[in-house]
Design goal:
The protein has 364 residues and is mostly helical. It contains 15 helices and four strands. α3 crosses α8 and α10 crosses α15.
Length: 364
């Protein structure tokens, strides 16, 4: 996790400043910060919760958002590589949706700008390899459920609209944030919220480990893309459905010569810039206790595996440098990442979904 360091002199030159005081530099240093309070439209989120768990929001009415973002599995699917729409399988790991609306960018290749949860939902629902849903069909299905229409009327006076349905589910995502996190409480002045080992891990995280250079802000991500040389997951080429899904992604992204590519090239497929080959978005480090396996392809089963990887400077072509942590330092860092940044389990039971009802003629 030790990023390449920029000296203060270079930082000053880049900023175009002749003189920068030490306090100013200290304030500019990146750090983890406590999560902000969740803010959402309660009426929209109420309907959004039902739709998040409703399989009728997928093309074949067999998948819901919760199928791959299971509350009992840290809001992931718990697998190295994600599930996908029937007759396809995905080629990247499924990240948790806890704290997702606080991210600067979405997807491992960073292809979606953060801050717009509705756009994220639209992408996941309409993409053929995920839920393969048409917004017009979603609209008609919602209108066929009187209870959903009644909930819709709590925040809008019109009929359910396909494009706005994405925003409704996105509003529910805003409510899915970590709760009672030791680090957040400790950062706010509760000295006993983290134990001595976790505090030591945090100091390594900021200091010798250099992790904070990329893992900062409220979710522990700088929102940028980096090359760390994570080894390939052999299942992507060994399992035809995953390989086909990856090549389709390259094709629809307009990536050149994609049929001769057998590895996950990361953001290069989006930018077409050769310098971006193998670069992936810095992931959130919140809730690591319940979101294994790790990395964009789920290749590391434990946090100990992750720390060992970063300690030796990553893999082939990595931007990282070896760190040289002792066994005690590694244990402290794991304790901080696993337990200091994980809150109470956010387990939500699937609500009882209301059934379709025949609609009155002329009310369509």
């Amino acid at each position: 996790m030790k990023a390449l360091k920029i000296t203060c002199a270079i930082a000053v030159a880049l900023a175009g400043a002749a003189v920068v005081s030490r306090p100013a530099l200290a304030q500019a240093a990146p750090d983890l910060v406590p999560l902000p309070e969740a803010r959402a439209n309660a009426a929209m989120a109420e309907l959004g919760k039902f739709l998040f768990f409703d399989e009728r929001m997928s093309g074949d009415a067999a998948l819901s958002c919760a199928t791959c973002h299971d509350p009992k599995k840290g809001w992931t699917d718990g697998q190295p590589l994600g599930r996908a729409y029937p007759a396809s399988e995905y080629f990247r790991n499924t990240p948790t949706v806890l704290n997702a609306t606080l991210k600067a960018r979405y997807h491992w290749d960073g292809r979606l700008d953060g801050g717009d949860a509705g756009t994220l939902v639209r992408d996941q629902m309409t993409e053929s390899v995920f839920m393969n849903m048409d917004a017009r069909l979603a609209q008609e299905r919602v209108k066929q459920v009187p209870e959903y229409v009644a909930l819709w009327k709590k925040f809008r006076n019109d009929d359910p609209n396909g494009m706005r349905i994405f925003n409704v589910i996105g509003e529910y995502l805003k409510t899915l944030t970590s709760k009672n996190v030791p680090f957040d409480r400790w950062k706010k002045g509760e000295a006993a919220a983290m134990n001595a080992q976790q505090v030591a891990g945090y100091e390594i995280f900021k200091g010798k480990g250099g992790c904070v250079a990329c893992h900062n802000g409220p979710v522990g991500s700088d929102g940028k893309l980096h090359r760390t040389g994570v080894p390939a997951n052999p299942a992507i080429t060994a399992e035809p459905l995953r390989h086909i899904t990856m090549l389709r992604h390259y094709s629809t992204s307009g990536m050149p010569n994609y049929m001769n590519t057998h590895d996950d090239v990361g953001s290069y497929a989006i930018t077409k810039d050769p310098r971006d080959k193998g670069k992936f978005l810095t992931p959130s480090i919140r809730e690591l206790r319940s979101t294994a396996p790790y990395m964009h392809n789920g290749t590391f089963a434990t946090l100990e595996d992750v720390i060992e990887f970063y300690d030796r400077g990553g893999g082939v072509g990595s931007e990282l440098k070896p760190i040289g942590l002792s066994a005690v330092e590694k244990q402290a860092l794991v304790a901080f990442l696993r337990d200091g940044l994980s809150g109470d389990p956010q387990v939500v039971d699937k609500p009882t979904l209301p059934a379709y009802q025949v609609r009155a003629f002329g009310k369509n």
